[in-house]
TrEMBL record:
Stated name of the protein: ABC transporter ATP-binding protein
This protein's record includes keyword Nuclease: no
GO terms of molecular function: ATP binding; ATP hydrolysis activity
Superkingdom field: Archaea
Cell wall biogenesis/degradation recorded as keyword: no
Organism: Halorubrum salipaludis
Keyword annotations from UniProtKB, A to Z: ATP-binding, Nucleotide-binding, Transport
Domain called ABC transporter: residue spans: 4-224
């Protein structure tokens, strides 16, 4: 089974057709970027795959498990809006992402959280609360929380949109490092075609005519 399998996916909100007859298959370990103009249904596609959308037509499966049957618990999602806990500090917000069963009092768990905080360039801010962070910093906390889970399938919705250019490049390269080390499957949604071409094995374009999700570029050689 492919890691992500979408067949004939149509999603409507009232009269709005957010997705129409979308087919997409993503192989195990593949890094796919989904691009397309604002409103073409990119976020909706990820929400369906995460199991956050109850009603849609067609099929969507993660790791061979239909999302209607609960999907795979190996899927992790980083939302475009950071959705941090306001009363918890950065360390706690990242630790929330640790998989169930991990003993949070275990020094190894602490190390892992601290490593992730360093990876996203926030060492020194571990004790800060979200209200004390910039939008870009909050987005990096959200990314660290998503990575803490170590999902087999990582779904990322515009994870770099609030970052300045330099930080964005750093975090893009960090993501590639994590992806290579872990061999995870990644589906990243972005409106930034350059970012997609830089990061992904395959860039999929969503939108335009119904059913026209297509692989347009293979850009593997573009990566460092
Ligand atoms: P993208 O992520 O590509 O910008 P979205 O998936 O957010 O696109 O949205 C696709 C379409 O569905 C848009 O027309 C949007 O307005 C509509 N839409 C998304 N979520 C909702 C919702 N909860 N209720 C109503 N319409 C929605
Ligand atoms: P070129 O690769 O043609 O010289 P740029 O350097 O402007 O073009 O980069 C194009 C895209 O590649 C950027 O928008 C960015 O997404 C990505 N990119 C370039 N350099 C880096 C880098 N060092 N780290 C991460 N991403 C990079």
């Amino acid at each position: 089974d492919p890691a992500l399998a979408v067949r004939g996916l149509t999603k409507r909100y009232g009269d709005t057709v957010a997705l129409e007859e979308v087919d997409l298959a993503v192989d195990d370990g593949e890094f796919v970027a989904v691009v397309g103009p604002s409103g073409c249904g990119k976020s909706t596609l990820l929400r369906v795959l995460t199991g956050l959308e109850e009603r849609f037509e067609g099929r969507a499966a993660v790791d061979g498990v239909d999302v209607r049957d609960g999907g795979s618990d190996g899927v992790g999602m980083v939302f475009q809006e950071p959705r941090l806990l306001a009363w918890a500090d950065v360390r706690e917000n990242v630790a929330i992402g640790l998989p169930g069963g991990v003993d949070r009092d275990d020094p190894a768990a602490h190390d892992r959280v601290d490593d992730l905080i360093e990876t996203v360039g926030l060492d020194g801010f571990a004790g800060h609360r979200p209200g004390e962070l910039s939008g870009g910093m909050a987005q990096r906390v959200s990314l660290a929380r998503g990575l803490a889970y170590e999902p087999e399938v990582l779904l990322l919705d515009e994870p770099f949109s609030a970052l300045d250019q330099l930080t964005k490049y750093e975090q893009q390269d960090n993501l590639l490092d994590v992806w290579r080390e872990r061999g995870a499957t990644v589906a990243l949604v972005t409106h930034d075609v350059e970012e997609a071409a830089y990061l992904a094995d395959r860039v999929v374009v969503l939108g335009g005519q119904p059913g026209t999700v297509e692989a347009v570029v293979n850009v593997e050689a573009d990566r460092p």
